[in-house]
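Backbone shape codes
____________________
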Amino acid sequence: MIGFLTVLLGAVFFCFQNVIVRVLFNEYTVAGLLQTGGFVAPSLPNSFLLMAMRMVLVVPLVSAMTPLFYPALWWDLRKLGQKQNRPDLLRSLLGGVFMYLYLALLYFSVGLIPTGIALTLFFTFPVFTALLSWYFFGDAPSRFRWTVMGLVLFGSTLTVPQTGLTANALGVGLGIASGVAYAIYTVLAQKSFERIHPVPYTWISFAVTLVLSSGSLLFWTQPETAIEWTPLWIGGLLSAIATSSGHLLNNMGIRLIGATTASIIGATNPALTVVLAWFTIQETLNPLQIFGVILVTLSVALLSRERNS
């Protein structure tokens, strides 16, 4: 039950991250009180900029805060540098590459098709996680889990806004590819956690993503209008807190309940984001979206009962 709740809390933090990005790209009334947002245009170059700004803040934040609840962080990182632990270090570095890859592919997809559709395509990753876990760990999902997975994915699809559904093949392919990359990341994480703690693994993933995302700024072009840097950095800090908390909680949950179950819970993100956006920025829900949220909630509740049985 602890692992289930840990991953679910991580999913909530990811939802906050999604809402923060929406506010940075578009103007909203937050909590019915403050009119803010729309600081940069929702474009691929600006997505790379926000990703790099987020990671510049994430790594120092995690480096400063993590030793407070996991004092062995720096000791574990030094130990990974020893010759006998090089395979674990290489696996951790590879995890960071796939973390960056799933983010980059997702941003490419968002640049070509509507954000809601791109996110829903990304959240097909539980299917790929289940198949990879089955192949590498012999963890064959039961018929019950396949059913729950299908219900979660179907319910999440219903939460996608029904406007702007024109999508091109490349954008769709990149959205699915981002889900595959994230599935590989989670399976690498599960394998790594057999020998190392989730905290140093996550720190290495963030550090690698920081290096690679900084390189992606080569594709960022200066916009014609002046950028309001102060609110962007504030949004970046809030996003960094949500990102680091979400990944740390998710990775600790993977260690407790496995990548497949964690990925099914993580697939509730689109539905949770819709609900959170409704509370914070007053995005309206149509009956189909409400039905999708209810379907996802009931499906995850069923999965929770299975974990407790």
